[in-house]
């Protein structure tokens, strides 16, 4: 009985759809120090629908996981607020 109940609960939670996600990578030429990475991550995470970001100043890229409803233009506009230039990496 307990196994059946546990299985039912697990099945219920695994069937719940949290929406589709997308991953995008941006190249930001001006992101050349740890403070830049912090600012870029902070700005991107303020966008509704962004799940996570991870920036790297060595290769000047930031990887974003977000809801698929968030447009690439929203990411680029957020970076523009920092007076940085972002390009989507294919």
TrEMBL record:
UniProt domain HMA: residue ranges: 22-87
CDD domains membership: HMA
Alphabetical keyword list = Signal
Q: Where is the signal peptide?
A: 1-19
Any idea which GO molecular function terms this record carries? Answer: metal ion binding
The reply to whether Chloroplast figures as a keyword in the UniProt entry is no
Protein's recorded name = Mercuric ion binding protein
InterPro entries, sorted: HMA_dom (IPR006121), HMA_dom_sf (IPR036163)
């Amino acid at each position: 009985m307990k196994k059946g109940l546990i299985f039912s609960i697990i099945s219920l939670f695994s069937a719940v759809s949290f929406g589709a996600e997308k991953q995008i990578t941006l190249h930001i030429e001006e992101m050349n120090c740890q403070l830049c990475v912090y600012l870029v991550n902070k700005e991107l995470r303020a966008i509704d629908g962004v799940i996570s970001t991870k920036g790297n100043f060595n290769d000047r890229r930031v990887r974003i996981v977000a809801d698929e409803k968030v447009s690439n233009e929203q990411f680029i506009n957020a970076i523009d607020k920092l007076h940085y230039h972002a390009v989507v990496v294919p």
